[in-house]
Write a structure and sequence with these properties.
2 domains, three-stranded mixed beta sheet
Length: 253
């Protein structure tokens, strides 16, 4: 009799457990019908949800706030995610995206580089994104996703970026590319100018400061009419401006 009673009690407990889980799952399924995302600039809400496999409402019954938060924070573009119920049926995910300093190229691969020199793979086209491109470092063998790529070349490129940012925000925004040329003289490219700016090596901040004075004079003019082939900043306090027919020298800048 005792064994029969024990069996009945165990069966009843299991049955109640199954009923409880089905009710809980039903409640969760009823609750989570919409997942909304705010704070996103790099990708649309739909792109994030598709990548994180949070786009199928029939799978929502398996989700919790913790699972949703964990998935978002594993995305390489996201630093933090705050997840909460906005209403009984809606989840609100407020994300904080990572800050990137530039795009770093290696052959056909593109990496986003953080201020800590960490390389993040560029996994999809990014909107509202207009960062300068860095390429041709002296050695790119150690360039791997989610690893640090801090060496003399990348530190020099960051110094150029920081100098331009501190000297003038417009100059920084116009800086489109930094060609490190495998350890040789560094060449810069600026938006709106179809000629290279040769920086060389060393005293990068001082050279960017010199160039800013020339940039101020050129940016409001028709650059095509100026017929400039290149600007050379490699010499101390002298800027060479090469054209098709002449070589102009700006001294004492």
């Amino acid at each position: 009799n005792k064994g029969k009673i024990t069996g009945i009690l165990l069966f009843t407990a299991m049955l109640l457990g199954v009923v409880y889980l089905s009710v809980v799952n039903k409640k969760i399924e009823e609750k989570i019908k919409v997942i909304d995302v705010t704070g996103n600039n790099y990708l649309t809400k739909e792109q994030y949800l598709n990548f994180l496999k949070l786009n199928n409402i029939y799978d929502f019954k398996f989700l919790s706030l913790h699972i949703i938060k964990s998935r978002f924070e594993k995305h390489p573009y996201i630093d933090k995610a705050d997840v909460k119920f906005r209403t009984r049926n809606e989840i609100l995910v407020n994300i904080q995206e990572r800050k990137f300093e530039a795009v770093l190229l290696k052959d056909s691969s593109e990496f986003l580089i953080t201020k800590e020199f960490e390389l993040i793979p560029k996994i999809s086209p990014i909107r509202n994104f207009d960062l300068p491109v860095i390429y041709n470092p002296e050695s790119d063998r150690s360039m791997k996703s989610f690893s640090s790529f801090k060496n003399d070349d990348t530190k020099t490129a960051f110094r150029i970026l920081e100098s331009a940012k501190l000297i003038n925000s417009g100059l920084y925004n116009d800086l489109a590319e930094i060609n490190l040329r495998r350890g040789h003289d560094i060449v810069l490219g600026f938006r709106g100018f179809d000629f290279p700016v040769v920086v060389g090596r060393g005293n990068e901040t001082e050279k960017i400061l010199y160039f800013k004075q020339v940039w101020d004079k050129l940016r409001d003019k028709n650059v095509n009419q100026l017929d400039i082939n290149y600007i050379d900043l490699r010499f101390d306090k002298i800027i060479y401006i090469g054209t098709n027919d002449t070589l102009n020298v700006v001294k004492g800048v």
